[in-house]
Design the sequence.
């Protein structure tokens, strides 16, 4: 038996090896083209990104300033309300003091004031040898017993 080899198979083998070499170059070319596309996109997109980023930064600062302003307004309103309430309490306290003074003024008389003065002298720790002598002007003489005799 004799084997017959056709000549058509050989060029297929050569083409087969060439296709394998083309397949090895294809991914490299694709990677280089992809890298170049990424570089072009980066060169075009980076300025736009910087503008957008600055815009977002400005919006954030504006929002922070608005929030700070609102906080200051609320604090000022609270302080104003507190001052109003303090003023009202002072007015009420002053009215109470005025009423108390009128009651004291209406209830006090000379005899009660003398009694309180004598009671204070009695409770004081100064000297227990105080002599009280009423005079015509209703002024007490307290130093009569302390006169120095030559």
Sequence:
């Amino acid at each position: 038996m004799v084997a017959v080899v056709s000549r058509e198979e050989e060029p297929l083998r050569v083409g087969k090896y060439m296709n394998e070499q083309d397949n090895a170059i294809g991914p490299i070319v694709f990677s280089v083209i992809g890298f170049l596309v990424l570089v072009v996109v980066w060169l075009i997109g980076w300025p736009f990104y910087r503008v957008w980023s600055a815009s977002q930064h400005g919006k954030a600062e504006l929002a922070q300033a608005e929030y700070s302003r609102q906080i200051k307004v609320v604090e000022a309103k609270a302080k104003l309300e507190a001052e109003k309430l303090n003023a009202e309490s002072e007015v009420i306290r002053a009215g109470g003091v005025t009423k108390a003074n009128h009651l004291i003024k209406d209830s006090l008389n000379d005899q009660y004031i003398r009694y309180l003065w004598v009671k204070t002298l009695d409770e004081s720790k100064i000297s227990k040898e105080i002599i009280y002598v009423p005079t015509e002007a209703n002024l007490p003489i307290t130093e009569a017993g302390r006169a120095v005799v030559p």
Observations:
- The helical segments are 9-107, 110-123.
